[in-house]
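User: Please fill in residues for this 252-position structure.
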């Protein structure tokens, strides 16, 4: 997959995606990240990319022309037309389903705003969709773009050393992840649940699924709402809830 990033801070984005699984995906040729600086597509001595906002008020707006030229250069650099995504709090929230869908495209372009954002006409004419990574305001779209690249990059075929990892992701099943433990078995901070040491793979799978269901019920009931659990999962969750009620009784 190829990702083009239009940004006034190319170094910031590159640095963010140069490490770990996603950095390795690039070295393995599974992911190509290219950055484009609108400042390189200006024609005035000051390399101006922003202007004051019509209507007044504080803050500057990224102007059409440098962005139009930059996006034209991005388009010219590859055969397929890219799906253009603008990162902003006004966008639709990014979910793992959305990540999986975007990760399947051959190419996307991420447009990062700074200041008060880009001229609205850029959104209307050159952007296919607006994506938000959460309900908060950053100082620009770059960190959000890095989040998107990270989430997409690790899903590229061959990026994870163990193909099972992506399947066992938190959210791959719409549930939160189960707890994880490594050595030592016994520690001042507690012991590893016995079932994980049992060698009984079916029992371990059941326990992990039950923990995932239970934690989702406790922490993110919204993820379970309107979802029909199969009989086995429902039984695991019922047992978890019963156990949870008993444990909380003991606290009082
Ligand atoms: C800046 C500003 C300055 C003075 C007065 C009003 C102002 N509003 C903003 C502003 O909202 N700037 C945004 C910064 C414009 C778009 C790029 N920026 C951004 C993207 N901040 N947060 C995001 C973002 C992207 C995706 N998901 C969550 C947040």
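Assistant: Residues filled in for all 252 positions:
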């Amino acid at each position: 997959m190829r990702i083009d990033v239009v940004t006034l801070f190319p170094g910031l984005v590159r640095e963010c995606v140069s490490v770990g699984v996603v950095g390795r995906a690039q070295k393995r040729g599974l992911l190509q990240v290219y950055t484009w600086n609108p400042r390189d597509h200006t024609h005035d001595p000051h390399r101006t990319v922003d202007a004051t906002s019509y209507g007044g008020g504080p803050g500057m707006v990224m102007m059409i022309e440098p962005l139009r030229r930059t996006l034209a250069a991005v388009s010219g650099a590859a055969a397929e037309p890219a799906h253009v995504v603008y990162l902003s709090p006004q966008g639709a929230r990014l979910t793992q389903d959305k990540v999986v869908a975007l990760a399947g495209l051959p190419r996307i372009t991420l447009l990062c705003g700074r200041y008060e954002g880009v001229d609205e006409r850029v959104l209307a004419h050159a952007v296919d969709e607006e994506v938000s990574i959460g309900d908060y305001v950053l100082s620009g779209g770059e960190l959000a773009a890095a989040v998107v690249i990270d989430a997409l990059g690790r899903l590229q075929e061959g990026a994870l050393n163990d193909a099972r990892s992506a399947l066992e992701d938190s959210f791959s099943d719409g549930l939160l992840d189960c707890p994880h433990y490594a050595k030592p078995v016994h520690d001042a901070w507690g012991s590893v649940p016995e079932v994980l040491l049992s060698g009984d793979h079916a029992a371990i799978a059941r326990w992990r699924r039950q923990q995932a269901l239970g934690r989702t019920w406790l922490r993110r009931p919204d993820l379970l709402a309107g979802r029909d659990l199969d009989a086995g999962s429902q039984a695991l969750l019922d047992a978890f809830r019963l156990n949870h009620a008993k444990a909380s009784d003991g606290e009082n």
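For context: The CA atoms of residues 1 and 31 lie 5 Å apart.
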